[in-house]
Design the sequence.
């Protein structure tokens, strides 16, 4: 997994045996030209996709500084006439982006922490202890991967209603944890299984308790797997839209909307009041933190998000 | 193991199992149970209709329309995404020719990968809002803004013929980068010796791609196909936020997930929504089983 972001070619250089450069030095010139043409076309295609990817995001940033009139003039990539952060203040304050952001943050902190704690506890026990019913519990969790969340929406709503957790952060956090467990356990159980048994046995001989072995020996040993799956869960839960729409609904939930819901709502009201620049500022405010976090942790994020599919 | 093993096991399992049973297992069981009742979501559950909900579904035009849209996504989303991602991953990893005897990626491949991957980090809900404006049907939309002033603005999402195509484009836009990174990781583990040997035998890049890269990545491609197919059954955030009239115009962008949501929470048809959910479950399962079966071939060891 560590080689996801590095170019494989450069990585293999140290292992190259010295006889090889001689071969490529003897390459005929027309082959080289073919390669240059190919490489040129490759660059055109790649640049085109990079533009397609970044274009809409740059456009959002530019439009966030424009007035409605400017936005409706066309010329989407023209620079705004003047830069002012007024739209940002109104997005943060009047449109409540700040509050939605904090709501999302609170929910994700607790739900990811809970997912990781309970997920790794269950995965550890299921991966390394023999007891009757072990496989049954494991398959109960893993079978959750096969079911579409949509199927459970209506029942889930009534379950939460009956226990009085509808429209509460607690309810949302518990549901996030429950729905993140199948993948987390599936991934971590495989990981815990792959760790060596010797150190654990030595600790047992030294009289360490089961709980202590888990927190002080296994968790540190499983660090790389835990990091990957933590990132996976943070991103997944931060971006969740369906569950909050179902759970954070009804009277009094307006102030408890999460960022994804909030943005969707601002987009609807922007349509009514023609406050497009506020919408663009709100979008920029919600994208910017992702860019910053991505800039710092891009290797870990790419590894974490692709970890599930690689296994 | 020493004594005290069972209290420990139970202690570690009780919370996760309880949470999972209450909110996930119980909810899925109830979905099956509710699907044979006509129930608005309020009051006691007494109007047992057997397969009535499924019969109603069979006669529901919107259901068939939505199913067609899901199938449209199911076929085209994996196909187009995987082809684009494979080509880009190939260019990034082996597009740069040989230097010092090593096949390498094109210059700047790391930067490309970083840019391509970013949309994967954004919530579909946010992407839906962005593209709702990108596809704006007047000059304020990004694409219409790029067109010359003399053109009549395109309607995009407001045009029944193109609404689903717009959704497909957005899904592809988001997914490609992820699969480029995924396939790149797979290609990184293919020994460069194989490429070297084939290149020395005079194999062209096209041959390398079809004879070496694709076969050796087959299992990753298979998994990707299943993942993208499951995404094609979702698309809820996009349709709910981005489309005209949510699923419109005239049902032209309705999908099963939106139907389930609206029946459960807006039309007071919780029983019917659950029946739709059961259908969705069997569709997903059939799709996954079919994909794995149809695409099965001998694994090639790198």
Sequence:
């Amino acid at each position: 997994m560590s080689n996801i972001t590095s170019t494989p070619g450069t990585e293999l250089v140290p292992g190259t045996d010295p006889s090889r450069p001689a071969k490529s030095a003897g390459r005929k010139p027309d082959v080289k030209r073919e390669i240059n043409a190919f490489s040129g076309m490759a660059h055109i295609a790649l640049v085109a996709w990079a533009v397609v990817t970044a274009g809409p995001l740059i456009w959002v940033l530019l439009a966030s500084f424009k007035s409605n009139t400017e936005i409706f003039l066309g010329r989407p990539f023209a620079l705004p006439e003047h830069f002012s952060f007024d739209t940002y203040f109104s997005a943060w304050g009047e449109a409540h982006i700040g509050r939605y952001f904090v709501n999302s943050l609170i929910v994700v902190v607790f739900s990811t922490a809970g997912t990781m704690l309970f997920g790794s506890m269950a995965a550890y026990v299921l991966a390394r202890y023999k007891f009757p019913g072990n496989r049954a519990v494991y398959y109960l969790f893993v079978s959750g991967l096969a079911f579409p969340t949509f199927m459970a929406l209506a029942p889930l709503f009534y379950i939460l209603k009956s226990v009085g957790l509808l429209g509460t952060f607690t309810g949302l956090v518990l549901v996030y944890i429950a729905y993140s467990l199948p993948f987390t356990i599936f991934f971590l159980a495989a990981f815990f299984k792959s760790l060596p048994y010797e150190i654990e046995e030595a600790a047992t001989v030294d009289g360490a308790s089961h709980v202590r072995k888990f927190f002080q020996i296994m968790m540190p040993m499983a660090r790389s797997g835990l990091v990957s799956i933590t990132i996976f869960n943070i991103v997944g839960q931060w971006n969740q839209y369906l569950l909050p729409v179902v759970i954070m609904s009804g009277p009094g939930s307006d102030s408890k909307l999460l960022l994804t819901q909030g943005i969707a709502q601002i987009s609807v009201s922007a349509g009514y009041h023609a406050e497009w620049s506020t919408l663009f500022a709100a979008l920029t405010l919600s994208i910017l933190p992702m860019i910053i976090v991505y800039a710092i942790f891009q290797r870990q994020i790419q590894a974490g998000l692709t970890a599930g599919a690689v296994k | 193991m020493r004594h005290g093993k069972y209290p420990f096991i139970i202690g570690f399992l009780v919370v996760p199992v309880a949470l999972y049973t209450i909110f996930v297992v119980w909810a899925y069981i109830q979905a099956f149970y509710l699907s044979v009742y006509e129930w608005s979501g309020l009051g006691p559950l007494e109007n047992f209709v057997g397969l009535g909900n499924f019969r109603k579904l069979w006669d529901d035009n919107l259901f068939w329309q939505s199913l067609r849209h899901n199938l449209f996504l199911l076929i085209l989303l994996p196909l187009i995404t995987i082809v684009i991602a494979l080509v880009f991953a190939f260019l990034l990893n082996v597009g740069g020719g040989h230097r010092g005897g090593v096949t390498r990626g094109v210059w700047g491949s790391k930067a490309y990968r970083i840019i391509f991957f970013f949309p994967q980090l954004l919530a579909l809900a946010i992407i839906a809002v962005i593209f709702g404006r990108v596809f704006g049907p007047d000059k304020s939309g990004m694409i219409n803004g790029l067109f010359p002033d003399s053109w009549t603005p395109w309607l995009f999402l407001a045009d029944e013929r193109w609404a689903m195509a717009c959704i497909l484009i957005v899904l592809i836009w988001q997914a490609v980068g992820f699969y480029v990174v995924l396939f790149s990781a797979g290609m990184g583990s293919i020994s460069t010796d194989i490429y070297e040997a084939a290149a020395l035998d005079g194999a062209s890049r096209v041959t390398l791609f079809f004879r070496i890269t694709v076969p050796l990545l087959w299992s990753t491609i298979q998994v990707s196909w299943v993942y993208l197919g499951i995404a094609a059954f979702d698309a809820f955030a996009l349709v709910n936020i981005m489309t005209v009239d949510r699923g419109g115009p005239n049902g032209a962008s309705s999908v099963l997930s939106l139907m389930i949501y609206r029946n459960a929470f807006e039309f007071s048809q919780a029983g019917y929504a659950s029946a739709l959910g059961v259908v969705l479950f069997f569709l997903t399962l059939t799709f996954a089983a079919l994909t794995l079966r149809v695409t099965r071939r001998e694994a090639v060891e790198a």
Notes: Chain B touches chain A through 119 residues (CB under 8 Å).
